[in-house]
Write a structure and sequence with these properties.
Purple Acid Phosphatase, chain A, domain 2; 10 strands; 203 residues; alpha/beta; five-stranded mixed β-sheet; single chain
Length: 203
Amino acid sequence: MKFETQNLFFTSDFHVGHDNVIRFDGRPFKDTSEMNETLISNWNEVVGDDDIVFYLGDLSMRCHPSTVKWFVEQLNGKIHFFMGNHDRYRDIRNLNRFEKIWGDDDVQGAGKIQVKDLDVKGGYQHIEMSHYPILSWNKGHHGAWHIHGHCHQSMAKNPDMSWYYKRKVIDAGCNGWDYTPISYTQLKSIMDQKSISSVDHHE
């Protein structure tokens, strides 16, 4: 899928309605109501109506469907949804909010896009996205990026995994980005400081 605009954003792992995630992640909220309001406000501060957001899974957990529907209807932009391990396809589909749903109950969301970028050889930046981190991705040895969720920054903060995140990989989990979607421009500035390497036969 090709995108001719760079008005793109990435985020994941909101866990709307999940009280324990505040404790697990050390999130700076007194309760899920404050968390929900902050996530909506931060999203709408950076995402406009015509912008595109790739949400990389785990929208809610133990949350009433009416609250989840209220939540997603507050969000600006055109949202592509990648199924996470806490998401159920029927529930996500019934929200009638997403441009595309990547994955289903049996296959977690994963997919490739190309973003027009004249700074990149060939004119398009290749991006591989999934809910889970992956070890080796297509065109990684040519500078393709990998963006994932699921880990809540636990791998990115682990010194034993520093070799992994020195590559062109980002954990888009919201708790690592001030609970705000990351823009393509932000990602590009970060990825430009990372190395192109692989762990397969392309090394």
